[in-house]
Amino acid sequence: MNSRERVRRAIRFEPPDRLPCAEDFWDGTIEQWRREGMPSVKPEDYFDLDLCGMSLDASPRFAQEILERGNGMITYRDRFGYTVRKQDGVSGSMEYSDHATTDQQAWDRIKPRFSLSSDPAEPARIDDASYFAHFDPYPSWEEAAAKYERLRATGRYLHFTTYGPWEATWRHRGMDKLLMDVALEPDWLRDMADTYMNLVIRILERCLELGMKPDAVYLIEDLGSTRSLLFSPASWRATLGPSMARLGEFLHRHEIHFWMHSCGAIHNLVDDLVERGLDVLNPLQASAGMDAVALRRRYGKRLAFCGNIDVHKMTGPKEAIHEELRAKVPLAREGGYIFHSDHSIPPTVAFERYVWILETARKLFRG
């Protein structure tokens, strides 16, 4: 099997030929590993990972500009309508400010920006680079299609990544204000979520028209803390659920898998996500009590998983992470599981340790 066939079999709950593997890395991790001896090749090639991706730009396309840079920090305005200050080139805490949607009058002005231009000269809303901190100009649609073809030629399972309706909306509205909107302005929140999802679906339609069909659409949609959901399932159903259902219906109609990433303890929302067409849940944060083994018992073949390997155990005693692997890797033998950390790999995980973890996981799969 090639990687694409391997992952597709796993999602269908059919035994793959070997352990399907994917991973995300913090900014700075690969640079650190190069200093520790990793060859200068792409991590997906070196580790023989099975996924590759492109990212959608479903933003209101405000001007993106660097405001300040120096002393290891960068401050910039983003296309989504916020300002952020963070470490430059390193993952870590981020200070968000100056969100564009200050009130409903501001939203009325911003809402028309969530649209797909019919002008063929307008830059594409998709690229093979991450959306986050994307400072380079976007390619033309023709150039984007060529990038898609190059990724397809790798034989990897190809996903298109974009924010979910919650992640997208708080970025231009602000997290604190949007949490209040859940309780006080649910109709407005639903309008913002629906407007965003309309654009996502329109971008996907344009991609399909140009022959760019992904294996999956992968939403980044953090809905939980380490203890609970950010809001009640009932509030989610009333505000964000309808847009998720429309996306799920669109994807299944076009035979595209529906993936979602959400950190936190989201146990109480998983049934709702499955009802709206979710095929694969990632990353199953272990420290928030998410457990792939328990979830498999509950959902059987209705939901596949990608992740749940506790990053905290990767830096501790080998026996702790070995036990983690022994518990979870066997899930993959009958399909329905893709190896991945329970978030992404920080530079505190040594290169030699990660190599050992991946080799051990692959051996455990073989039995």
Brief rundown of the structure:
This protein has helices at residues 3-11, 29-35, 43-46, 104-110, 141-152, 165-173, 175-184, 186-209, 233-239, 241-253, 270-275, 292-299, 311-314, 318-328, 351-366; strands at 51-56, 65-70, 73-77, 83-87, 94-97, 126-127, 157-163, 216-220, 257-262, 280-283, 304-306, 337-338.
Describe the fold and architecture.
The protein has a single domain (3-60, 103-366), classed as Alpha-Beta Barrel (TIM Barrel). 40% of the residues are buried. The chain has 367 residues and is α/β, with parallel strands linked by helices. The model has no long low-confidence stretch (mean pLDDT 97). The chain is globular, with a radius of gyration of 20 Å. The longest helix is centred in the middle third of the chain and has 24 residues, at 186-209. The two termini are 19 Å apart. It contains 15 helices and twelve strands. The chain has helices at 3-11, 29-35, 43-46, 104-110, 141-152, 165-173, 175-184, 186-209, 233-239, 241-253, 270-275, 292-299, 311-314, 318-328, 351-366, and strands spanning 51-56, 65-70, 73-77, 83-87, 94-97, 126-127, 157-163, 216-220, 257-262, 280-283, 304-306, 337-338. Helix 12 (292-299) links the parallel strand 10 (280-283) and strand 11.
